[in-house]
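@channel sequence for tomorrow's demo:
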Amino acid sequence: MIPYGKQHITDDDIRAVIDVMKSDFITQGPNVKRFEDAFAKYIGCRYAVAVSSGTAALHLSAMALNVKKGEKVITTPITFSASANCVRYCGGEVIFADIDSGTYLLDINKVRVLLEDAPKGTYKGIIPVDFAGRTINMEEFKKLADEYNLWIIEDSCHAPGGFFIDSKNIKQNCGNGIFAELAIFSFHPVKHITCGEGGMITTNDKKLYKKLLLLRTHGITKEPDLLKENHGTWYYEMQELGYNYRLTDIQAALGISQLKRANEGLKRRFEIAKVYQKAFKGKSFIKRLSVVPEGHAYHLYIIEVEDRKGLINYLRENNIFAQVHYIPLHLMPYYRQFGWKEGDMPIAENYYQHCISLPMFPSLTDEEQNFVIEKVLEFFKS
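structure tokens (generated this afternoon):
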């Protein structure tokens, strides 16, 4: 079986986990802080907060930015549900804007139209997504956000190690905290770095950092400087309504080990993308082919084809488990209840009719990739 994505676990990863299992800390211990510091250094931000999942990272980010009931936040319909759900968890209202047909990313021009057509103050924030590993130009979104006094959460679950080049020709890493108040990452098994499950929030804002630390642990603190009272060394206070969204030391140890070869994994993903690009370039059955721009982290390799369903079924008959990313979120039954319907996001809806994610993960062998290519070509010749 060749899946669309797969974790890559080495003997070093296993040893790192075993070492923690033999230590005094298996829940939240010293490895969590080590992982946070190492990840912050890798991304190039000041602070990082490890949490139990990418979804937890989004939820805490929305809470830290004080999303309230009825407040409107803009995001893309082509993303995993958590990117929007975090707003709903806080009682906010999700407003979708269509994607750019060339990049599949949230279309800044569509976002601008929404903002221009509403009284100032209508919207509170934007959640752009570095979809498939292709990076949003956060400099442009930051300018727009500042113009309308909006905050930004950058959903970088697909793009650790990804980057874009800004207007001054400077490399800007996803989640480096320069253009967004908060950025989030996921460590699910199909992502670049895995902890089994897990997530990270990055920021350059010390106040938000401190609030995130509080919210991820039930809203409880023992820090003497933050206590309203202090009855002794045992004393703690619950100061806000938070959650148990902590990462364990076991997961953090795996994350630290995985992070050491993150750049190696990115290099391999790029090589795989180039092979696909060469194999499918100019083929008549391809409606749209993923490009290979600088800074793309290649969580996914997506092509658009006619008869997507037929191709997926044929690949599965040959033990190739391609996938679809994503069903437009505004057409999910939950979001339809708020009035969203077919035709609201025409570019996203057209993309969904044709998109397919081919196997993309660092341990994919040349032989496996050639087999995938062979079967795609075989299907369209038949």
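heads up for whoever presents: The radius of gyration is 21 Å.
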